[in-house]
């Protein structure tokens, strides 16, 4: 095994400054790089280094949040557990696991906070179980906790209710239980929240946990059972990690990103969510704030290929089956809800937003767009599945053939492009994706994997698209493929054309160099010209460029740039939880997180550098 790049700790640990971690909040908000993600295959929680869980939807990733302090610092729901005196903090994930450990050091002692969204040895639990165990390391430390119920922009009115078995809290259709160990003292139980304290000495341990569900009965689990499940959860994550078949370069980074992608796979259906959060801004104070808690065909397809590349075949198969069923049911849409339904219309929610970045949205405008890239994404994914030695069923084969027919029919149309823009154009990347779709359809038909009835049409359309791109999308002046015909804008997503196998090595190489010249800032890249004013650099683009350089034969250059980019990403050290974008000057995190495209792009670049099959 080769691993001559960043150490196992890179991207996997954060150290708070000498000032108390609570003082790291700016304008009341923690920097996004100060969050780490935990999850259970159904939902994801974002945990701040100051001990505040500021985002978690219950029971599912795309249902309304129980904790939303991330978007409403003053009134949003949160679950704070932290020392009751100034402290510094370090954190990391347990090795090969999504169980998070944070060590708090105070003048009086040191404690370790171990937390996870629990699972069992039989898999995901039928309720959400958030467990937070405090272990004494040295001296003694007094901690406070505050469970604050949000009102979802004043659309609900939380309350608590007591019966002969338990006290429950209610937030809309969510009902929950707070479970604590004997050493935890409850100081206040009110409709707007619960407060308490606990003191832990060296060798001691206490537990604070939440069990929650939506419109369903809850089991009042013993505290000892919840505590034991924390360790079971770690064991299950380690078992999953042992199944990852990757022995190439940068394995610690690849495995950490694989674990992040696993958090984004919605286990009840196999859907893959683009990111776990909603409306985190691409530029602080700007309006590019979108809801990413849905399954995009593009993101899911790329994730499936990343999973296949590292041997996570169960996840790849589940996600591919889900995608093909949605295509059969609804046709080739851009994105779907996690249960397979189409998205409702996008609406605005009256919340202040992260660091006052408005608007906050529910839903996504991309749902109704035409994006030709959908065709290339799904047919490329099917082709990779078959190339790995697997078999398509007759119904899936039919759906894929029909998808190729639609592509051959629609490729001449303007669309919204990979970046889901309001301006419809003949985006070069969209045409390359259509070429990719029909090239893969021809290959699948030749291999006997899908019906070949329309193969001659696919082949002719594929060649017409290539000729159209060469004639209309190449700029002699810029020596590059442009974003669309007639513009001087460049598009960093065109780096993907190298992996797609698009013909014309010389022109692709020149395009990559032009992208570097115009869109690169340090080790990062903007998506396309003109976005510098209102958003950060799109991290996946930089990994796409690195992978393209490696595929074009520039291995040493690509390796050096991968390692330099890894150091940049380590700046925030969100314990390995990566966002969509970064500010190229400050390296502050921007956009929704954990972002699937970022993590899968890291995996693909590392695997390409290691010589793993594309």
TrEMBL record:
All copies of domain Trehalase-like N-terminal, residue ranges: 31-108
GO molecular function, one term: hydrolase activity, hydrolyzing O-glycosyl compounds
InterPro entries: 6-hairpin_glycosidase_sf, 6hp_glycosidase-like_sf, GH15-like, Trehalase-like_N
Span list, region Disordered: 1-24
SUPFAM superfamilies linked to this entry: Six-hairpin glycosidases (SSF48208)
Signal peptide feature range: none
Biological source species: Aureimonas jatrophae
One GO-annotated biological process of the protein: carbohydrate metabolic process
Protein name: Glucoamylase (Glucan-1,4-alpha-glucosidase), GH15 family
Domain GH15-like: 248-605
